[in-house]
Amino acid sequence: EPEVTQTPSHQVTQMGQEVILRCVPISNHLYFYWYRQILGQKVEFLVSFYNNEISEKSEIFDDQFSVERPDGSNFTLKIRSTKLEDSAMYFCASSVRDGPTEAFFGQGTRLTVV
Amino acid sequence: QQPVQSPQAVILREGEDAVINCSSSKALYSVHWYRQKHGEAPVFLMILLKGGEQKGHDKISASFNEKKQQSSLYLTASQLSYSGTYFCGTLGSGSARQLTFGSGTQLTVLP
Question: Which residue, of A52, A73, B9, B22, has the fewest CB within 10 Å?
């Protein structure tokens, strides 16, 4: 069964450092998303990406964040200068199309900023 | 604006029924239900699109009242495997197409 793959599963970084979280969406999917979940809280939308550009982003997705699809398979989330409050589980998701359709989530990357 | 879920937590015995509610203050285009087990990714359950639509598979079903901007998830004769946190996600009827999740309902099924 096709799945969304995320690496690494856990990353510890020092405050102020840059991190790149990687995702390989399902191959025939066209829409890609990043979500964040702070421990014990709800899943929060960060950004959606289609046709090599951001289609929507939330207030959380400020200038410290960027996304990229550097090749035909990877989809990355970069946090330029991490803060303590960036510590969370980051989920990548993908879907065949936009709007009301099933989104497939990866297993997540747990980011710990110390 | 995120949807509001109730209750925040439910504890029930295997075989009992549960209802989880999701409501929004804005017009909805669709409601999406996901279940997340501890330490795992959210897993899709179902999408409801139309006012008054009801869907279900196995013993989990849901309804969507578009006029009231509400959806309910029904878990019938619950099984141990139903334990987890249930999130409703809503898609507005306007131009914003981002899925906004509620704060979740933690469901615990005891033997």
Answer: A52
* Identity of the residue in A42, A55, A106 whose CB atom sits nearest the CB atom of B87: A42
Chain A residues closer than 8 Å to B91 by CB: 99-100
pLDDT at B65 over 80: yes
Judging by beta carbons within 10 Å of its beta carbon (0-12, 13-18, 19+), is residue B88 exposed, middle or buried? buried
pLDDT of residue A97 exceeding 90: no
pLDDT at B106: 95
pLDDT of amino acid B94: 63
B80: left (phi over 0), alpha (psi -120 to 50) or beta: alpha
Closest CA to A58 of A68, A44, A69: A44
pLDDT at B96 over 80: no
By C-alpha distance, the chain A residue nearest B45 is A102
Q: Is the dihedral of CA B23, B26, B31, B34 positive or negative?
A: negative
Closest residue, chain A, to B89 (C-alpha): A43
Residues B106 and A42: their CA atoms lie apart, in Å, by 11
Encoded tokens for B9: 């937590």
d(CA B45, CA B43): 6
Inter-chain residue contact A42 with B2, CB threshold 8 Å = yes
C-alpha A64, offset from chain centre: 13
Bridge partner list, B46: B33
